[in-house]
Write a sequence for this structure.
């Protein structure tokens, strides 16, 4: 139940919806802190943890993780602006992602970013050109597209033809191409798996990456100052549930590091991990209202004031793992007998469905419901501009008190100059 999932009481949920309108995102900073503590406690020590802003770039969440000790991994001008707004130091950011343009690299360099993940020789050359224009040197970790560990489960990011990273045979065939003016290769970057609920699979991937890092250090003759092992740490999405706990990860990964990269305990190399959804996923819930209830050819429908324009839009396009949203009454009350309903949003497309055959108490128009565990890949991963509905307010809470309440707003501005560096305005 929503009240059990978080510190947000039924009365508080109703009050927030009355004050800020429905639909409404609510984020709780206490859950962000708890997730950070749990994950860092499950990882080898010492190690560095990057927060991947793609999960949720809200500056308040980023700032809370910065205060906890996380650094930020960014992949765009907008994410860079959010990280800096949240107080992150440019010199501690990692700028990654395929397709980095000369313009955005120049801006990142001007803002003081000096650490980059290079995805290809062309990417490395563009990073070097941007650095050389300023007379600085960019430290680059090479993202590796390596085969996965046997039998691993999860959404694979590498291990096949991909826009992500260097193929191992490509690197081996042309190691001299790594000597690019304006850059210095300082390490390796792995991220083979995402949203891995099976700890054994995740452990196998991390150990495989450690072994590959040691082999590449030898075969390429590069110095390893940083080995970013990525992540893959899972979280439930739009369904009730708890974050998985990786109880055996620390010991197994530490043993592999001792064997293959024995200087890691003294910072040679620094070992890093990344996480997005695991750190913020359970901090957020979406409150929305049933606007209509109908029966169509024997199927009950509940039409909501929120849809794939606010939640799971990428899932609606088949770009993420299928979403199986299960709204929960903020009151936690059982209500009338359960029905199996289709939950549809307000958009004029049959794709705007948040769940089919969802078993839940009978709903009535005007009822407030909650989607839990949507602090990651929620609003900014959705079709916010489609049909022009206003964005939900985003309320950040701590200790039962509202910290901030803002709303993203798309805006149209004159073209003719390079794109501005911020996300849509937050007011």
């Amino acid at each position: 139940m929503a009240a059990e999932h978080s510190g947000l009481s039924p009365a508080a949920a109703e009050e927030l919806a009355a004050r800020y309108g429905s639909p409404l995102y609510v984020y709780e900073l206490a859950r962000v802190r708890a997730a950070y503590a749990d994950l860092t406690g499950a990882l080898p020590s010492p190690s560095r943890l990057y927060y991947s802003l793609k999960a949720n770039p809200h500056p308040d969440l980023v700032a809370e993780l910065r205060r906890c000790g996380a650094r930020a991994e960014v992949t765009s001008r907008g994410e860079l602006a959010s990280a800096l707004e949240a107080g992150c130091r440019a010199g501690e950011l990692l700028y990654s992602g395929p397709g980095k343009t000369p313009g955005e690299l120049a801006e990142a360099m001007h803002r003081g970013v000096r650490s980059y993940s290079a995805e290809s020789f062309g990417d490395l050359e563009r990073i070097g050109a941007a650095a050389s224009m300023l007379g600085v040197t960019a430290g680059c970790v090479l993202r590796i597209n390596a085969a996965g560990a046997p039998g691993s489960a999860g959404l694979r990011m590498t291990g096949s033809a991909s826009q992500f990273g260097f193929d191992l045979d490509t690197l081996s065939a042309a190691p001299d191409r790594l000597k690019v003016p304006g850059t210095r290769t300082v390490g390796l970057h792995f991220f083979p798996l995402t949203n891995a609920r099976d700890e054994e699979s995740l452990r196998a991937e991390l150990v495989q990456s450690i072994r590959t890092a040691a082999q590449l250090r030898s075969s390429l003759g590069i110095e390893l100052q940083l080995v970013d092992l990525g992540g893959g740490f899972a979280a439930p999405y739009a369904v009730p549930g708890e974050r998985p706990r990786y109880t055996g990860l620390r010991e197994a990964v530490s043993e592999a590091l001792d064997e293959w990269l024995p200087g890691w305990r003294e910072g040679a190399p620094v070992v890093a991990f990344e996480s997005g959804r695991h750190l913020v996923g359970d901090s957020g819930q979406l409150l929305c209202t049933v606007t209509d209830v109908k029966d169509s050819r024997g199927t009950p429908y509940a039409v909501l004031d929120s849809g794939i324009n606010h939640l799971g839009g990428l899932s609606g396009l088949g770009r993420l793992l299928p979403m199986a949203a299960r709204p929960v009454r903020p009151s936690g009350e059982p209500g009338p007998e359960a029905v199996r309903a289709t939950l549809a949003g307000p958009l004029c497309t049959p794709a705007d469905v948040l769940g089919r055959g969802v078993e839940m108490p009978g709903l009535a128009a005007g009822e407030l419901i909650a989607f839990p565990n949507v602090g990651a890949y929620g609003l900014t991963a959705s079709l916010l501009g489609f049909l022009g509905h206003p964005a939900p307010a985003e309320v950040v809470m701590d200790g039962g008190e509202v910290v901030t309440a803002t709303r993203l707003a798309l805006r149209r501005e004159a073209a003719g100059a390079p794109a501005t560096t911020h996300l849509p305005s937050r007011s």
